Amino acid sequence: MSINHLEKANLVIVGGGVFGNSIAYHYIKNNPGKKVIVLERNELCNAATSRAAAMITKVRAKKQFIPLAQRTYAAIAEMEALLKESMAIKKVGIMYLASSSAKVNELNELARTADEFGERWEFLTPHQAERKAPWLNASTAEQIIFTPNEAYCDPYLLGTFYARSARLLGADIRQGVEVHDILVHENVVHGVVTDTGIIEADCVVIASGAWAPILAKKANVSLPLAPVRSQYWITERSELFPENSPMVVLPDVNAYLRPESGALLFGIRERKSIAVSPHNVPSDISDFQFSADRGMTDLAEVIDPLADFFPAVKDIGLKHYIAGFSAYTPDNYLSMGTSSSVKNILFATGCVGAGIAVCGGVGLAFAELAAGRANPFDFSAFSIERFGNIDPFSEEWLQSCARARSVKNSG
């Protein structure tokens, strides 16, 4: 590897997924004339972003996520105007069904949260819910809440909209360039070492998803997250699945479902999630051998309670199995922000399965931090130092993050 080419930039972003491209867009939009470089070793948005179920959920139990998701909707509108193209997001709303008193209480709290943030919601009867989603059996639901202003999108398109908008405004976005090291001296980061040369920078943002702990370690930071497998299925097409039917969340069975081009996409939170060391995730995620058989075993463990709401699941053909890695934490909060011990480096990481929803707010937050301004959002719950001194590569840590995904039933 020849390291003889030197460049300088105001901001270097490592990772060309939805977070990295959103940061680039927001930074160059708010800091015209500055030099921002995004480095992606493969193709843009080819890892977690392109494999996301892409529900842009605003109303959720974790209130700190909501302003970030609201910013995502605002960013989409801005980019559509800038590019003079529609991203064709599907604003179909979400129905939440509760079939136990505990989940009814959670839905009541969700409704109060929606009110707090100015988001619409309404109660539905089981009959109304089934009319909206013909595949659904809502007869056991004790309470149903519908939030009509929620949407889903094509995640790859969202990520590339950020990249195209950033490029149009002057950002330098490079594919096929790998970062091998972080330039750090006396706990101050000065840039990165790539396979094409050195780039000095006033600020470096690590937005490399499942691989982020590896680069963080090179800057003497133990980044608290772990790559945990996410998985979902897409059925065959059927008239049971109108394209304008709402997304559905079933907290009692830890499942979510949404339309997908005349079929139904559905995901579960399996009883035993799988985490791997960041060192064991290949640089090209398509090289990782996800086991469809293991996925079917996970599905079989929860298929009976799922069939109570989705009776056709046992008979409908399953056309596609999609799996990937999301970066999880033991408390299911994002893991991102600054380090108290190393300066000029930021970490936009730990999406906990909510990356598509919160990407707009994450982009704006890190754009402002990288420019030396205050974060417009409250990131106190996301601190990368909240777990104390941890080893992100230890088996104990990996399993604690895997368990968190298994029990997660709300945003």
**What series of H and E elements makes up the topology?**
EHEEHEHEHEEHEEEEHEEEEHEEEHH
Question: Which CATH C-level class of the largest domain is it?
Answer: Alpha Beta
* Share in helix: 25-40%
How many helical stretches? 9
Please give the CATH architecture of the largest domain.
3-Layer(bba) Sandwich
| Sheet of most strands | 8 strands, mixed
- Backbone CA Rg: 21 Å
Number of strands: 18
Which regions contain 5 or more consecutive residues with pLDDT less than 50? none
Structural class call reads alpha/beta
CATH topology of the largest domain: FAD/NAD(P)-binding domain
Number of domains: 2
> How much strand?
25-35%
Globally, the shape reads globular
- pLDDT average, as an integer? 96
How would you name the CATH homologous superfamily of the largest domain? FAD/NAD(P)-binding domain
The N- and C-terminal alpha carbons lie at a distance of 43 Å
Verbal overview:
The chain has 411 residues and is α/β, with parallel strands linked by helices. It folds into two domains: 6-73 and 155-224 and 330-390, FAD/NAD(P)-binding domain; 92-150 and 227-328, 2-Layer Sandwich (D-Amino Acid Oxidase, Chain A, domain 2), CATH 3.30.9. The protein contains nine helices and 18 strands. Helix 1 runs parallel beside helix 5. It is globular, with a radius of gyration of 21 Å.
Features:
single chain; 411 residues; alpha/beta; FAD/NAD(P)-binding domain; D-Amino Acid Oxidase, Chain A, domain 2; 2 domains; 8-stranded mixed beta sheet; 30% helix; 25% strand
